[in-house]
Records
---
Amino acid sequence: MIVDSDKDEKRKVEINSESGFNALKEVLQFKVVYWGPGESGKTTNYFRLREKFDAVKLNKGYSIETTDGRTLWQDSIRLSFYFNLKEVKFNIITQIVTATGQERFLSTREYVLDGADGVVFVADSDPEKMEQNKRSFRELSSFTHDKGIPYVIQLNKRDLENAVSLEDFKAGLGLPKTDEFDDGAPVVYPTVALKGDSVRRCFEDLMLQIIFNYFYN
């Protein structure tokens, strides 16, 4: 993926999902957290990413679940990428974790978020889950508003017959009405995580934000 920044001088960043560690300038480590209400699809995103980036996994990953199969603590895996910046190759080690969406485990979510460089907020398209979406988003905002942590918003389960409209969803969360921000990034990423639709793009777009923050902010 190659993206042009809108800085004074045009720069190019390339992210590659290939292994390779020759002539590396530096190793950078980042943490990405998947956050959202219970059963919105955070763990499904995690499994799809494990599949899509299987060749660059540094560990097999692990999950800690309740007896009914829901995330108790966190799912976690580490991936290794490299990217080129002005003809210099860097290696990125990215830890991907999911925060439990169960409201009784609020304290664990805040702990999992600690040290995050970026967040994917995973919302549920079921209209009956809108209040949970809003509570979870407010909670995330309260934890991140003074830390400058970049995040992207994913509206999952778009294959539901009664899926909430993008317009109603954005209005409910107080998001811009436009489809894209000024830099061309989507305000909301519609996804079907079970099928892997847009899961990789959402993750890679967030990684580019994290990289730009690291070098240019």
---
Amino acid sequence: MSIKAAVFSDTHGNIEYALAAVRSYRPDLIIHLGDHAWDADDMHLEFPDIPMFRVRGNCDFATSARDREVVPLGPVKAFITHGHLYSVRYTTDSLVYAAQERGCAIAMYGHTHIPDNSELGGVKILNPGTAGCGSHLTWAAVEVNDLGGIMTEIREFKLH
């Protein structure tokens, strides 16, 4: 039995596409990587039975969301953060190190609005891009199987 997660970042008040993605993908959990962390609260109201994990971004003030979290994904753990505290615009080295320190197989971040689906130092790196602003909106689908196999995919929203 695999665990499915829908991962969003940088919604900036626009959750219409994210809601549609959750409806069609039907994940076991939702992860929001900040910038408008309160959008995660609105998404959770729409899907109260789906566990929601969220972190604060550099544009998030007056939110109870933390800067970083460790999220269980079946047999593996994911380190989630917005990324601005790890200088991800320039390198993902410190992000990967933070994930390794916490025993995480995946490091998820946002902030740059640029999708990233790569690997470094044995850690899967995932940035879903931006789900809320710009002309190229994306999100990430994640599946982890019982043996710890990880599948990550960047998916584009169909804009209308």
---
Amino acid sequence: MKVVLTQDVKGLGKKGELVNTSDGYARNFLFPRKLAMEANAQAMSELKNREAAEKHRIETEIAAAKASAAKIEGKTVKLSAKAGANGKLFGSVTSKDVAAAISKQFGLELDKRKVAVEDIKSFGTYPVEVKLYNGISASMFVMVAE
């Protein structure tokens, strides 16, 4: 019997998958616990609609990530920090600071975990990698000045 899973079932499949099970397993275990529903025409059309909506959402996110990458690729973000007499910073410039500066200067909201930069402890210009989506990233620079 073909069924569409409404929840994850260990050893059988994930939510939304179409799986083939024995009639007894489906009628006596899956259906009473509302873990699956029979794969009739209505369930199949709902499954197709859900898959199409998920595909559209992913395509939209990828397009937005590519647009953001084009917007910041090769640009320089300027940060100011306080330092001692020999040019060493008090503390360091972290990915959180860089993400906040990108948000402020380019209007692009980023999570600090998406910015790959080593801790910057002196003045200068440093390369930064911004991961916007799986496989989509942008390279930019951070200029630290007083």
